[in-house]
Design brief:
Layout: H1 2-26, H2 34-68, H3 72-88, H4 91-95, H5 104-117, H6 123-133, H7 139-149, H8 154-177, H9 184-191, H10 193-210
Helix pairs in contact: 1-8, 1-10, 2-6, 2-7, 2-8, 3-7, 3-10, 5-6, 7-8
């Protein structure tokens, strides 16, 4: 299921443009030096990807505990359902509830620090912008975290989120280099594909947890749960 992480990042990157795109456009890049600009952009993406990987590591530890408790198979089904629900529920419904209120001060601190770093042009500053950017609340990141939570190993959870971050790079880089071509009509056309692809990924996680014996999709011996009576020879 690791491949779904990159795919999820790729299809959700248009959504990311709305939130992270303005930050990317404000980055203190060397506009007149293409080589330096590319390296700075890579530094920015490295910071974001590292944040996702670290968050994935944390959720992997939680998921690992559930694995030892025998809930991993059910967790995969739960993660798939959550991804589907997050996709199908209109964004305006979520907007009615302030889920970030408990961490409002932390988010404000992150935004404040981001503002300070955007005034600097050093590589550490650009890296920290990417790192902090990855901490901002985002529905697509939440969906990816459910996937990371359902991974069998902690390392896979971290890798899952890292691949998600890598999947967002093409479009996030495109908004910097091809801003004039990514028009609103183009965004609207591609945005229509996002819900379909997200639901497909959610269904894959549900099938994975069901263990239907479908090779690579829902293998019967997927080891998502701890056997109550392990086979000893």
């Amino acid at each position: 299921m690791l491949y779904s992480a990159f795919f999820l990042g790729l299809i959700s990157s248009l959504h990311c443009i709305g939130m992270c795109g303005p930050i990317a456009l404000m980055l203190p890049f060397a506009r007149s030096n293409p080589q330096k600009k590319a390296l700075q952009l890579l530094t920015y993406h490295s910071g974001r990807t590292l944040t996702y990987a670290l968050i994935g590591l944390v959720f992997g530890l939680i998921g690992r505990g559930l694995y030892f408790s025998g809930f991993q198979q059910k967790l995969s089904i739960f993660a798939g359902i959550c991804i589907i629900v997050i996709t199908l529920i209109p964004e305006k419904v979520f907007a009615q509830y302030n889920f970030s209120q408990p961490v409002f001060r932390l988010i404000s601190c992150i935004k404040s620090t981001l503002g300070k770093q955007l005034r600097k042009q050093s590589y550490p500053a650009i890296f920290s912008i990417g790192f902090l950017n990855g901490l901002l609340p985002c529905g697509m990141v939440y969906a990816a975290l459910f996937g990371a939570l359902a991974m069998q190993h902690v390392a896979y959870s971290s890798l899952y989120m890292a691949l998600f971050g890598l999947g967002t790079i093409p479009m996030m880089s495109g908004v910097v280099y091809m801003q004039q071509f990514i028009t609103m009509p183009v965004r609207n056309k591609i945005r229509k594909v996002i819900p379909v692809a997200m639901v497909v990924i959610g269904v894959l996680f549900v099938l994975r947890g069901m263990g239907l014996g479908i090779p690579y999709v829902s293998p019967s011996e997927i080891s998502l749960f701890v056997q109550a009576h392990p086979n000893c020879h």
